[in-house]
Design brief:
mainly beta; six-stranded antiparallel beta sheet; three-stranded antiparallel beta sheet; 1 helix; about 140 residues; RmlC-like_jellyroll
């Protein structure tokens, strides 16, 4: 495989769990298993469904807006604004919430790919073979 270029306006998957406008740009559907890049727009007051990436860390770079990063596992809410990076360790139940008057635009995603979540929503078939270079042992 060689390098490729993808555009945020031509995603191969949209995921309403994350937002009304969550675009998966680089993910296992494009053969990227260990680095993912999503483009997400949260409208004012919009929030993701609280979720957990059991085996993946999530890094979210805030391009525009302000809001709260909520860690439900540890009962912590942290404010963020454009230029911040929200890092979520594996196994933490979390959500991103846009401020009531602020649209939030971000890029980022779980690394490695959250295969269990993608299987759960049907984006990856349950019986799909994982490539040898996928770096997480899902049997544990």
């Amino acid at each position: 495989m060689s390098i490729r270029v993808f555009h945020r306006d031509e995603p191969t998957l949209r995921l309403p769990l994350i937002s009304k406008d969550a675009r998966f740009v680089v993910w296992p559907g494009t053969d990227a298993w260990n680095a993912n890049m999503n483009y997400v727009v949260l409208e004012p007051g919009e929030a993701n469904v609280p979720h957990i990436h059991e085996k993946s860390e999530d890094s979210i770079f805030i391009l525009e807006g302000e809001g709260l990063a909520v860690d439900y596992t540890n009962d912590v809410s942290l404010p963020f604004h454009a230029g911040c990076v929200v890092h979520v360790p594996a196994g933490i139940k979390h959500a991103i919430i846009a401020g009531s008057e602020s649209r939030v635009v971000s890029v980022g995603g779980p690394a490695p790919a959250d295969v269990p979540l993608l299987r759960k929503i049907g984006a990856i078939p349950q019986d799909a073979e994982l490539p040898d270079h996928y770096c997480v042992d899902l049997s544990k």
